[in-house]
Amino acid sequence: MLNNLAIIGSEAVGHNVQIFDMNKVAAIDPRKPVTFDTTKDLEGLFDDLPIGRAHNVVIDWDNEYAIAVGAQPRNQTCAAGLEYINLDDPTNPYKPGCASSDGYTHDAQCGECAPSFQSSTLFDPISATAENALLIVSLQVTLAKQ
User: Fold this and answer.
1) Within 13 Å of residue 15, how many CA atoms lie on the same side as its CB?
2) What mean pLDDT is reported for the chain?
3) Which pLDDT does position 144 carry in this prediction?
4) Alpha-carbon torsion 114, 61, 83, 55, what sign?
5) Would you call the peptide bond into 73 cis, given omega within 30 degrees of 0 as the criterion?
6) Residue 119 and residue 92: Cα distance in Å, rounded?
7) Higher pLDDT residue, 10 or 109?
8) How many domains does the chain have?
9) Do 19 and 44 touch, CB atoms closer than 8 A?
10) For a surface tag, which of 48, 80, 101, 137 has the fewest beta carbons within 10 Å of its beta carbon?
11) Arithmetic mean of pLDDT, 71-83
């Protein structure tokens, strides 16, 4: 969850990362169940994963990013490493980059966001498990000047 948004990943091929506004659920009368449609009820859809699947999606609340982990196949550009998803505009999520140097990453957890010495940059430590290592990755986010 990020604010009122459910960020939904799956290992199903073609599922992609779905972004759903949970406020839609709050408005439902329990006596009149609703079936939501992924083609018209999503807030956004991130479809820039190699085959549309990821083992897990981790949320970086401080920087409003999602991070897809375990996205297959391992021979694509990001090597199934961490794939960052910018959610500044949930209706138009995009991938600003990835961390591919350690290859396949199975799970991850975001740490506290820590300001750097430059006030316009944040560094967010992310711990992740690869096939044979524990990774500590720092996501650098440059903030727009207000």
Assistant:
1) 18
2) 76
3) 41
4) positive
5) yes
6) 27
7) 10
8) 1
9) yes
10) 101
11) 79
